[in-house]
Amino acid sequence: FFKRSKMNKSDVKMLRAALRQIAALCAATGNNLLHNYAWREHIQINDLEQILNTPVMKNNRITGADFSTQQYKNGELKSCKGERSKTTNKLSKSKCKFEFDKQNDPIRAQQTQKYDCLMFTIFEGYNPDAVVHIVIRSNNAIKEFNAKVRSKQIEFNNKLQESLKAGRRGGRDSICFDYYDIKSMTSCEFFDANRKSLTREQFNNLFH
Fold first, then answer.
1. Nearest 5°: phi and psi at 158?
2. What angle do CA 178, 89, 137 make, to 5 degrees?
3. What values do phi and psi take at 203, rounded to 5?
4. How far apart (Å, rounded) are the C-alpha atoms in residues 201 and 187?
5. Residue 151 φ/ψ, nearest 5 degrees
6. How many angstroms separate the CA atoms of 138 and 144, rounded?
7. Which residues pair with 80 in a beta bridge?
8. Alpha carbons 19 and 12: distance in angstroms, whole number
9. What is d(CA 192, CA 67) in angstroms, rounded to the nearest whole number?
10. Are 44 and 121 in contact (CB under 8 A)?
11. CA distance 99 to 49
């Protein structure tokens, strides 16, 4: 169904002005900030440098690790758009999802188990403000993460084979980490928008 755009002339004028600023920043930095939420990764890198207290090198290629540091050589960034309850103003647990795609590719599936540092970030809706960062970097945290990856990959492959045998398409090619996966991982670290460390209880209290 076709509907008239909700944007009026003033809104379009504001949009053009904002995009001109972003275009100028893209030209100055050589980065396409609008492609695949690339702007999120730049904000994550900035915050991660402060959390790790070390320079973080961003990979500008589409494939491979998202970042590296002197200590971590195979880092991964994931983000999602948070949504708040109208009654409690807390984050929705169901919207806290971080996907790893192309799990039907054996090479990509193996790569998912080779990260040595990950940061998941929930952003404040469409705003450039992070609500919370989840960092997975200790040996125990990586072991927990990989164990869940292997379990999710087995479940994914079983469902894929069932679909193929039934003559159906395999569906989405991704595995997903949600709020409950993160909650069950005992060695995650949590940080607020100011990069201040949060307790597990404080993290849980962000959600309803």
1. -65, -45
2. 35
3. -65, -50
4. 13
5. -65, -45
6. 10
7. 122
8. 10
9. 21
10. yes
11. 23
Distance of CA 92 to CAs 110, 134, 147, 186, 205, Å?
31, 16, 26, 21, 11
Give the C-alpha distances (Å, rounded to integers) separating 117 from 82, 91, 153, 169. Answer: 22, 25, 19, 33
Q: Is 67 exposed, middle or buried (0-12, 13-18, 19+ CB in 10 A)?
A: buried
From first to last of its 208 residues, the chain has per-residue pLDDT tens of 677 778 899 999 999 999 999 999 999 998 899 888 899 999 999 999 999 999 999 987 767 789 999 999 999 999 999 999 999 999 999 999 999 999 999 999 999 999 999 999 999 988 888 999 999 999 999 999 999 999 999 999 998 888 888 888 767 889 999 999 999 999 999 999 999 999 999 999 999 9
Q: Alpha carbon 195 to chain centroid distance?
A: 16
User: What is d(CA 207, CA 96) in angstroms, rounded to the nearest whole number?
Assistant: 9
For tokens 């990586």, the residue is: 142
3-state DSSP call for residue 178? strand
**The two structure tokens encoding residue 193:** 């928008």
Are residues 152 and 158 in contact, defined by beta-carbon separation less than 8 angstroms?
no
